[in-house]
Structures are given as structure tokens and as C-alpha cells.
Amino acid sequence: MDIGSFVEPARPAPRRSRQATVRWGSRVVTIGGDAPVRVQSMTNTDTVDAIGTAIQVKELAQAGSELVRITVNTPGAAAAVPYLREQLDRMGVDVPLVGDFHYNGHRLLADYPACAEALSKYRINPGNVGKGDKHDRQFGQMVEIAARLNKVVRIGVNWGSLDQELLAAMMDENAQLAEPQPPQQIMYRAIIASALQSARRAEALGLAPEQIILSCKMSGVQDLISVYRALARSCDYPLHLGLTEAGMGTKGTVASTTALAILLQEGIGDTIRVSLTPQPGEARTQEVVVAREILQSLGLRTFNPSVTACPGCGRTTSTTFQELAKQIDDYLRAQMPIWTARYPGVEGLKVAVMGCIVNGPGESKHADIGISLPGTGEAPAAPVFIDGEKALTLRGETIASDFQVLVERYIEQRFGAAREPLTVGA
Questions:
Q1: In this structure, which CATH number among 3.30.1200.10, 3.40.50.300, 3.30.413.10, 1.20.1740.10 belongs to the domain 306-415?
Q2: N or C end of the chain, less CB within 10 A?
Q3: How high does pLDDT run on average in the chain?
Q4: Does pTM top 0.85 for this prediction?
Q5: Is 363 marked as a binding-site residue?
């Protein structure tokens, strides 16, 4: 069998979008162009509760959300936005806020100018800005405010709230054809047309192309992929990706990961949100964790040290390696806010926690620092590999804590200012 002389490494295709810039004070978040793919999230608090919303925004920002969207649906919510922004600024949280508007956004932005100022970006759904003559007028009012205040706008089409007048007109046109297209194709085309027509109208009203981001959200994986592939071929606006109504738990995580990973690998998408329904008691920040893991798994960004751990089998009836892997992973994530400032490059650290002799030594050698724990029936010894070489063997009841100390020391000596070689016996 001839496999050729060279195997092409897989890597995400380059993106080709223009770049938008979202600002709050000195905080600048670039989206598109050569910027990293950005992570977004959205609060599920009542925005009228400015303190509760500010606390959740802070949690999302600390988890890694680079923009946070809030619902602005009532006069009370609009009035609360400046106070919410003030509370965040007092806490030193400068994450830009995105206002999510439906139905009455034109009135809220006009009637509450402090709200319009405090938001860094507006999300406008062209399917929910009015019908008939009101549609263009009310959409125009929102865009004109954004242009005057130099705000970025995401024109966010959602298949659950698609402009029904546009869809009906396109369905009628299709019905007149000698060979009509399937209804699904017309829906796809209507979603894309809604986004592109709205973007062109926004530009005609004075919004710069660099102030426009598009999204066309669907709830089906194949639908989302089909629409975004066509959208990316049709424009160079930055694109926001997200599988809407993805669901909760494993279903939502797997569906979002599948759709977003395929599109990102093809070079489609400049900012993402994983829309998970939180399970009872689950933190809202879980969707940020998943989004960051998607980007890190694809090699698009690096946020946290990676911990390689085997799944376990009949050779590893002990749960020691599972417990140690979780302990190390939790510890690394908890320390990252401190370490990223203290130890530049630490987010690229690779740690291996393996359960037996089959793959343990090999995986540990490929990691920066790794441990191969004894499997069932193996000698109670755990060799530790550092930078590809066996450094020492841990034994006894304190293997877990001893290895964590070694990881801490490795990080300090490798990524610290001194850059000293690791002394394993110290």
C-alpha cells in the first residue's frame, strides 16, 4: 500500500472576513480578519436586576467570555443598563456588553440614550423589527443610532423568527418556476437573503461595513452548516456562529461541537457562542467552557494546559488515575487567572495522567510532564516523565499530592522569569 511520501497535516482553513472592532473604554475586542475566534455568552438573568446581572456577567467574563450579551426588552431593562455597566466598571470588569433587541429596540434605544451609550454592540433581528412599512423605518432607527454612536451591530437572523413576509414572497416566486426548488432550499435562501439585504440597507443608512457582523442561526446541525457555507461564499462580513436552541447536557454540547467544529475547520466563523440550556444547578459558565474547548481542540486558540488521561479499562480497576486527572485538571483551571499573568505561555502546558503501563509511558513522554500510574497487578510505582525523559519514580500513599507538587514546580521553573531547569530532587 502506497501512502505517499508526505501526509498533509490537518489544520483549519484560513478565514477571509473583514474585521470589526468592539470597544468599551480601553478594552478592544477585534472580531474577524486576523483576530482570534472570539468566545461569547449571554446572561439569563432579568436585566432589571442590575446587581444580579452584573454578578453573572462577571462570572462569564472570568470564565473567558470576551463579549456578554444581555436582554434589553423593556423600559426597565433599558434603564438598568447604564447602572449595570457602572457596577461592572467598579468591579474592574471591562467586558463589552451586547444589547439583545427584539420588537421594540428602536424605541428603547431612542428613549434611553444612556443605554445606547453603555452598550458596545447591538444585536438586531430583522425578523422582529416590525412588519410592512414599519420594518424598514424601525430597523433604520436602530442602525442610525448605532452609526451615530459608532457601535457595532450584529444582524442576527434566526430561523425561528424569520421575516415571514420575505419568506412568503420567495415561496411565491419559487412556485411560479417551471421546476420549483424544495421548500427547505427556499428557507435557506430566505435566511441568507434576510441577513444580506439587511446588511446592505445598514450600509446605505451610514453604518460602515466594518461595523456589521452577521449570523444566521439554525437549530439543526446540517441546516446550520448548509446556511453558513452559503453565507460565507456570499460576503466577507465577520460571522457569528451558534447552534440556536441546542439543548442541555450531552445533547447540546455534542450538537454544538459538531456543527461549530466543521465550520471552523473550513475557515468559517469569527466569533462563537455555545447555546446550552443549563441543567438544574449547573453554572451558566459551562457554555463558555465548552466554547473554549472547541477552539482549543481545533488548535485555533490555547486557553488552558491540556491534561491527557486514558479512559480506563480492565487493566485499571483502581480509580486513582481518574481522581488524579480530575484533581490536576481542576487545579490547573483554577490557577490559570493567576498563572497567565505570572507565567507567560503556561496555557500551552501538556500534562499526562495515565493509568497503566500499556500507553502510560509513551503518552507521558509526549507530554511536558506526565505520570504513569500502576495498573491492576502492577508494581506500586509511578514513573514521572519530564520533557520526554524519565525523571523519577513516585511511590507510596502520597503519589497524587507529590505529583501535583512536581507540576507546580515545573510550571514555576519553566515559565517563570528565571527560566531555570527543573530540579526534581529539590
A1: 3.30.413.10
A2: N
A3: 92
A4: yes
A5: yes
